[in-house]
Every structure is written in C-alpha cells, then in structure tokens.
Design the sequence.
C-alpha cells in the first residue's frame, strides 16, 4: 500500500432521480415518467492523504456525489470503490455537513453526540475509556472537556461545526466527506475551521473529499479540483493548474466572475445566461448555450474528457484548439 | 431628488456639513430590543451618509447589526425593536418620527428595498406585470397604459429578455437571477432617491451574482440613486461599493473608501477580517484567524466590544468605548488611533 494509491475510486457513476408526477396524474394527463440526471458518468480517484474538491454552482450535482460516496444514495449506474484501510479492514468514511444547526441533535448533550459512534461501533471497551476519548476529541478540535456536558444550542456556529468534526473523527475515519463545511459560517470563523481541518489532515493523515461553491476556500484546501456543470465533470486537474490556466470556458467563467477583494473586476464584460434546467438539459455540451466559443458541433455532440497538460477537460473548443485563440478575458 | 416636504432643522453639525445633498443621513442611530431579561442594544450610536449615485457597503458578520440598520431606515423594525435614539433623514426629510401611514408613502417613493430572497418579495398569485403596474401607479398616478409602458422600459433596463411576454408571467416562471432583476425593477419603479439592498446576491450563484451586482452598480450610477448595500461578503463590496462601513456587535468600527479599507485596514477587527479571507491568488499554509466569536448582544463586554478577541487590546479598551476617529485614510473606532490603549 503506497502513499499514492487511491483511497477512493469512482468510475462512471450516475444518479437519476424520479421526479415524475404521481401515478394517477400521469395516467389521467398521459404524461411520461420524468427523470433528472443529477450525476452523469462521473469518474475520479482520490489519492490517500490528499484533498479532492468538487466545485460548481447549485444544482450541478456536487452534493449528490458526496451522498453517493457516503452511501446515502445508491448509484443508478457505475461503481464506487474504496481501497482497503490502513489496517486491512474497509476504509471508514464519515461526513461533515453544511449546517451545524440541523446536523446535531438538540436534545443530546455534546458528549453523547460525540460518544455515539464510539459506543455504536464498540471502539472503546469501557464507559470510562469512551469518556476519555470524548475529552481527547474535544481538545483535538479546540473545545474544552467541560463542553461535553452542554447542549448544542449553547454553542456558536463555529463551535458547533467543531463538534460536528469531533463526531466525525470519533469513528477514526480515513476519508472525510465535507459538504460545504464552512458555508454557514462567518469569514473569521471559517478561517478557524479551515485551519483546524488542515491541521487535522496533517496530524491524522486524513483524506478529504471537499464539496464547495466557494472557489477561494477550495483553492486554500485542495490538491485536485473537479469542476462540475449540470451533472458532469467538465474539467479536473491539480489546483494550481486549474487556477492559473483554466481550460474549459465554464471554469474560466467561474474564475472570472468570483468576487475578488484584491483585484475587483468591476468593468468586465459580463457573460449573460444562466444554467439550464437539469430536467431539460441541452443536447451536446450542456454549457454550449452560454459559451462564447460554441459552434454547431458543441450543440450536437457531447465532448469527451480529454487530457490537456495536467488536466482533463470536456470541451470541443479546447480539443480543436479554438480555446487558446481567445484570451480568458474575452471568453468571460 | 429633493422632496417637496420641508425638512426639519438639523440639530447635528455633522448633518449640516453634508447639507441636504445626501440621500440618506443617519445620525447617532440607536436601536433597542426590550426583552424580559433587559434591553438589548442592537445598534449602538451609528451614523452614516450616502450621496446621490453612491453605493455604501455595510459589511459585518451575522449578528453585527447590519440588516437591522437597513430595516431601521426602512421603518420595518419588527416589534419589540424600536429606534431609541438618533435621526434618519432620507432625501432631506426626517423619517424616523413619521407615522406608519406617512412612512408607507415615503417607502417605495423615496426608498426602494431589495431583499435576499426574491421569491418572498414577489406575490406568487399575481403576474409580474400586475405587480409592476400596481407599484408604478401607486407612486406616479400614471394611466394603466402609461404604467405598462413604464414597466416594459424597467424590465428592459434590468436586462430581462422578451419583456413583453414576461409581463404576463408569474414569479415561479422566472429563475432566481431573473426574479432578482424583477425585484430591482420594482425597487426602481418610483425612481427612489435611496435603495436599501440587503444581501441582494446571497441566494444566487456566483456567475449570476456578478450579473446582478454589475446591474445594480450601473443603475445606481445612471439614476443617481444612493444604495445601502448590506452584505456579509467582502467580495461583493469590493466589486460594487464606493465606500464601506464595517460593523461589529452593533457598532461601526471602521469606515472609508473600499480600496483603503481592503488594502489598508486600520481597526484590528477589519485587519483580521481581510486576512481571514482565503486568497484566490496564492495558497498559504494557515489562514489568519480571529479567535473566539462575536459576543452576543446580552454579553457585550465593557469598553470596546472587540477587546476580548483583539491582540492589541490594552486596559483602556476594557474600560472605555472608542468612537470613530481619523485613522490613516479611514475612520476607525480604536484607541490605537485615538490616544493609545493604556
């Protein structure tokens, strides 16, 4: 087992949701069944000890991928494989959710919330050892041992997210799936949580699958980034290359429109258009109605993922070399 | 933009200096919430001015009082919240003493509002056209046909494609970004002097957010409308606002031009806040963090509200409450710039 071996391999995973009208309505109104393809043929691998991030706008399917990986949803097609854990047993996976207000049981004391996985999985032999472990976890995430006696409402948003992290760590996981872990937090608190997550990664050798819409957070955390648009990965590559030389027109759009306090671009020409409805995705490349580089082929054929340098990109324009001719500012 | 109504004489020298030019002038505003466990001061002695065509960003973390400031100006504070002190002038007219009926006339005509969730700002039972025409007629007395034409012009101005067809559609037929454009059109309907925009882009995706902030900026410059842009997102402020006011625990801790506050913050809180934002340009090992959290309103410490989290705090910070004083090119409420912390 080398350090570079993937801890998680997702191959051609797809997830469809049935959003049909109720049976009687369908029969009376002669409507067909209706499916939304939330995740369409997504493949990636996450190397052990790294942070793999998925970015995209709402509805692109990034949270669905997180739920597929944690088994909260079953895949419609494709494969999700974990390698063996460090001790030979299966890899333990835990999840950190966005909203620490709804992901902690308000009727339980913090100590019980954190102890539940330990008791459930019988990770400690006695109650005394369990309590000791809870105290250790609380101090790991920067809370006091006394805090175990309190209820979640007595904590601020940032502290509650620390409790969520402590609970996730309780089962000694190797892979943490984090779905927008800092989106509900204020910036100064977000920095505390991101620093904590980075420290834990180094100390415990954790692997993160990080889901976020915030590109600056993603840049801070990730080794590899996948950009999703309407259920598909459109570009995937090392964080540095994606930020310094984004290839796909959608990645360029995202990077070009994100507000930047150090270099605000107030007078840029704005790309118009909005993401299409996932119920009725456009033919060909899903991005072509908004794309400045789109031609007739983009509206007809779905582009394949192709390797371009260190990244893989799903774009006809990049494949045909049309993307290089336009600078980033023109494309956005 | 001046109202025909006579403005009452200004008691504060501050306000007089700015003259009747400002579309919004808030002086020493204090907002209180009486509760069973005592009176909570949500806004503590806050003053601000907005000139025609100017965008003032009001930024702060949740609970800092930025939204309450916007609501107080609109006269939409929910009971038991009340304005306990200070004055609010909109387009030269004092409005904090007005009755509910008079305020309703000022709201809409003199002040427009844009809130975070465009779906709740629109009535789902009426078409966009009906809502726009009603608002326009209420404030202008135009005929139905003229109001319809004006509605079309407004929709075109906020960038809604095929406005004629869109007029007869319901809010649910619009996407989030398009809905927010309709809300902006509604806010502009009566050509108000001032728009209060409370987190107008927070519910939107980044690529749409950029479109809306650019639109807001263009319209405000074209119409010479003053905008109070309330947001938690410093990025939005950097892209949109001219000046910024940073709030912490109900008080204004720093204010100045956007560029100066971002690149040369003077208050330790603002400095920390700017450094805590992950950079898009370089990756650092650890982000600057401000330890602790903003105090709750019922547990605000003596002296400067930031002192328990402040690395520079001295004994005076725990004793006295600093007021805004010149600091660099900005104004900051910090003893580091006003006589020292000893």
Sequence:
């Amino acid at each position: 087992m080398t350090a570079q071996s993937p801890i998680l391999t997702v191959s051609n995973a797809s997830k469809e949701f049935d959003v049909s009208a109720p049976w009687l309505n369908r029969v009376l109104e002669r409507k067909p069944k209706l499916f939304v393809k939330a995740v369409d043929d997504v493949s990636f691998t996450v190397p052990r000890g790294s942070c793999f991030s998925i970015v995209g706008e709402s509805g692109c399917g990034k949270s669905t991928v997180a739920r597929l990986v944690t088994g909260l949803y079953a895949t419609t097609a494709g494969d999700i494989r974990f390698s063996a854990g460090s001790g030979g047993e299966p890899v333990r996976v835990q999840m950190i959710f966005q909203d620490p207000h709804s992901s902690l049981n308000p009727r339980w004391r913090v100590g019980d919330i954190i102890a539940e996985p330990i008791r459930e999985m019988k990770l400690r032999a006695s109650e005394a050892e369990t309590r000791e472990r809870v105290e250790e976890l609380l101090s790991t995430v920067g809370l006091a041992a006394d805090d175990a006696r309190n209820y979640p409402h007595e904590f601020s948003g940032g502290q509650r997210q620390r409790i969520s992290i402590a609970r996730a760590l309780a089962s000694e996981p190797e892979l943490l799936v984090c779905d927008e872990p800092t989106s509900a937090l204020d910036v100064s608190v977000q920095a505390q949580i991101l620093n904590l997550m980075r420290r834990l990664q180094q100390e415990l050798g954790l692997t993160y699958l990080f889901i976020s819409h915030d590109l600056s957070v993603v840049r801070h955390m990730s080794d590899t980034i996948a950009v999703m648009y309407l259920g598909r990965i459109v570009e995937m590559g090392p964080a540095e290359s994606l930020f310094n030389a984004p290839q796909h027109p959608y990645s360029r759009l995202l990077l070009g429109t994100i507000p930047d306090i150090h270099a605000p671009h107030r007078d840029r020409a704005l790309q118009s258009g909005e993401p299409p409805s996932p119920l009725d995705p456009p033919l060909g490349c899903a991005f072509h109605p908004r794309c400045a580089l789109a031609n007739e082929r983009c509206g007809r054929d779905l582009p394949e993922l192709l390797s371009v340098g260190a990244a893989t990109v799903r774009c006809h324009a990049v494949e045909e070399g049309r993307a290089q001719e336009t600078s980033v500012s023109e494309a956005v | 933009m001046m109202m025909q109504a006579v403005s009452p004489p200004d008691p504060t020298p501050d306000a007089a200096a700015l003259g009747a030019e400002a579309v919004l002038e808030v002086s020493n505003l204090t907002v209180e919430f009486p509760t069973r466990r005592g009176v909570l001061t949500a806004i503590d002695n806050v003053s601000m001015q907005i000139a025609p065509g100017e965008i003032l960003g009001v930024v702060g973390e949740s609970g800092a009082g930025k939204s309450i400031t916007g609501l107080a100006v609109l006269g939409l504070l929910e009971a038991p919240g009340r304005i306990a002190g200070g004055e609010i002038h909109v387009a030269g007219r004092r409005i904090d003493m007005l009755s509910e009926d008079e305020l309703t006339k000022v709201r809409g005509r003199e002040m427009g509002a844009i809130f975070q969730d465009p779906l709740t700002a629109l009535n789902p039972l009426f078409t966009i056209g009906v809502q726009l025409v009603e608002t326009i007629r209420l404030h202008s007395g135009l005929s139905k046909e003229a109001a319809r034409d004006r509605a079309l012009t407004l929709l075109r101005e906020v960038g809604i494609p095929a406005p004629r067809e869109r007029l007869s559609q319901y809010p649910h037929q619009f996407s989030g970004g398009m809905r927010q454009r309709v809300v902006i059109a509604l806010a502009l309907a009566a050509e108000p002097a001032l728009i209060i925009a409370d987190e107008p882009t927070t519910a939107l995706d980044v690529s749409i957010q950029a479109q809306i902030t650019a639109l807001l900026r263009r319209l405000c410059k074209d119409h010479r409308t003053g905008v109070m842009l309330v947001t938690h997102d410093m990025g939005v402020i950097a892209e949109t606002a001219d000046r910024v006011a940073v709030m912490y625990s109900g008080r204004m801790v720093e204010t100045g031009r956007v560029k100066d506050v971002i690149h040369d913050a003077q208050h330790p809180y603002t400095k920390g806040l700017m450094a805590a934002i992950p950079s898009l340009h370089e990756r650092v090992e650890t982000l600057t963090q401000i330890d602790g959290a903003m105090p709750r309103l019922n547990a605000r410490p003596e002296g400067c509200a930031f002192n328990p989290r402040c690395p520079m705090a001295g004994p005076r910070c725990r004793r006295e409450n600093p007021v805004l004083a010149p600091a660099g090119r900005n104004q900051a409420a910090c003893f580091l710039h006003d006589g020292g912390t000893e």
Remarks:
- Confidence is low (pLDDT under 50) at residues 327-332 of chain A.
